[in-house]
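Quick start: what a row looks like.
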Amino acid sequence: MDHNSHGLCGESRRAPAQWTRSFDTDDTDSAAVDQPPQPPLIPLPSSRLAAMFDERSVGAEKFRVLASRLQYLRKQRPLKRVLVTSTVKGDGKSVISANLAVTLGRRYNTLLVDGDLRQSGIANLLGSHQLPGLADWWLESNLTTPYVRRVGTFKLSCLPAGQSASQPLEIFQSQRMSEMLDEITKSFDWVIIDAPPLILSDPSLLAALSDGTLLVVRQGKTPRRLLRKCLEGIENLKLIGVVMNGAEDDGHRYYGQYYKGVQRNVAAAPAPAG
């Protein structure tokens, strides 16, 4: 992990205190949530899952700051289902999704939905390649319970992508998908949805089913023209913030100029891609 790319607008040293104050339990009664009966997923130790395996690291601290900011936003507006996407593959959106879900899952009942049915990054991180999931639910069942798996010993569950779907757009734009998310959300405090990059149509459809979107960009890798084009048409994505993956402070100023409405919600994150 590159410890030189963890800048966060000078706030990182106050993260633990912010975390404590912001995450006083005031949401769904966690005791009321029934955990799925399947054996839990036990991911292999990885530097890309700093929030799970290296809680005292600078990287894990950044995710606590990000989680605190989401909690603060939720006090101002309805925010429970958060979509995480990027402009192109390799910006690190799956790493951000997984670590954010783990961070929230330490205190809240959290569901991580692997919505990248084309090329899952979550499967690589959590080891869920062979597990049935969202695509299987679409083909075989009306119930999601058989497909939801507990992750480790946290208050975190995961709905894997499942088998590769030939027509993911059909799933995401269906009324059945909307109703399923509405129903499953009732059992969790937070739902984090890992979506494909914006170069595909999937994120726009998933954004319509979410309360807000985090856009992940990587300094030095995310194409500037493509980022500008994405931000110009961002209205339908319900953008609530930009996550700078592996960025120096100068990157905050550069990317912030393209979307002034979310500049104050720009956050930095660890460097590994996903």
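That is the whole record. The radius of gyration is 17 Å. Residues 86 and 216 are 5 Å apart (CA to CA).
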